[in-house]
Amino acid sequence: MPMIHVEMFEGRTPEQKRALVRALTDAFCETAGGTPDTVSIILTDVAKDHWAKAGKMASD
Prior knowledge:
With 60 residues, the protein is of the alpha+beta class. The protein has one helix spanning 14-32, and strands at residues 3-9, 40-46, 52-53, 56-57.
């Protein structure tokens, strides 16, 4: 069973998350095979003050 884990900044709407989940599922099945019922996805919302890149906080 494939597991896709997405970490992203918080703030997206439920509709955006639904669209993302559908697109990821479709893309996985089209490129790697399998059926949608086997694809699991975890969406993790992260606050900008909990994320850093290149030595800088995303909230700065």
